[in-house]
Amino acid sequence: MSEPIKRRGMSGKDVITVGIFSAIYFVINFAFMLLGGLHPLLWILMPGFIALFTGIPYLMMCAKVQKVGSVLLMGLITGLIYYVTGQFTVVILVSFVLACGLAEDTLDTMINGGVMENAVKVGEYFRAELRKLQEKHSIITEVRGMGMINGAELANNEIGPQIVNKCFEKKVLINCTAGNVLRFIPPLIATEAEIDVVVKALDEAMTELGV
Length: 211
Description:
Layout: H1 12-36, H2 40-64, H3 70-84, H4 90-112, H5 115-136, E1 140-146, E2 149-154, H6 159-169, E3 175-177, E4 181-184, H7 192-209
Antiparallel strand pairs: 1-2, 2-4, 3-4
Helix pairs in contact: 1-2, 1-3, 3-4, 5-7, 6-7
């Protein structure tokens, strides 16, 4: 199990790292804004491209600087760059900072509020329970996953959709991918008791189907 991330203030190196990724974010955004002026269709597609490609430096920054305040600082730096280059009004600048502040609070809850630890703990419990089902139902050939994303591979492609339908009748929503893999992606805050409900529905579904 991974160690919880401790609350620490940002160092000078962290501030520089955030500044670098903020600059990269701005350059990518500005480049797509310029490309958007070449054709009306590109202008329509521009927001989507910007969201897709600027997400790369944002996520890299979040991975590199896992400290409280990093997202807010990135939003402040980027917003100031836009403001001084005449691209944003004060209202938009304030909205930019407020949005990043909300994102910062969300990340703080995820990192320091026990959400990630719960995902690891309950995910391991889920896989252990699925392996118990594997011992009981030979149709399951492999159980694999990480965190809250887990899968149970089945011996054939025909039974998967039937199990999904049976579980749906029991008010448990799962899906079948690649033809023969039951996929489970519960919320990161799911509890072991809720996992028990899913496992019970699976057990009953497979028993009713005679597998």
